[in-house]
Amino acid sequence: MDPAPLIFLAVLAAVFWFFVIRPQRQRQTAHRSMVSDLGPGDEVITAGGIYGRIRTIADDHIVLEIAPGTEIRLAKEAVATVIPRPGETPPTAENGG
What we know:
Blueprint: H1 4-36, E1 43-46, E2 51-57, E3 61-67, E4 70-75, E5 79-83
Antiparallel strand pairs: 1-2, 1-5, 2-3, 3-4
């Protein structure tokens, strides 16, 4: 029995893991960390493209002010990006973001 097909499948699985699964897990971990660090007053962009400022935070949702006097309630996981405040450096791979 020739071991070449088994070796090929093992290498293919390793390549798939390094290029697909591992980066996706890292993105999930970074997103969970970002969501857990949210606080009132943070400016965010949602997955739907809505810009707003967080007013209150509960266990599973946030209240986002999208215009003066207009608030919406969203799931925390809907937050895609936190807009850095003036003077803050935006998170990058080099500084832990």
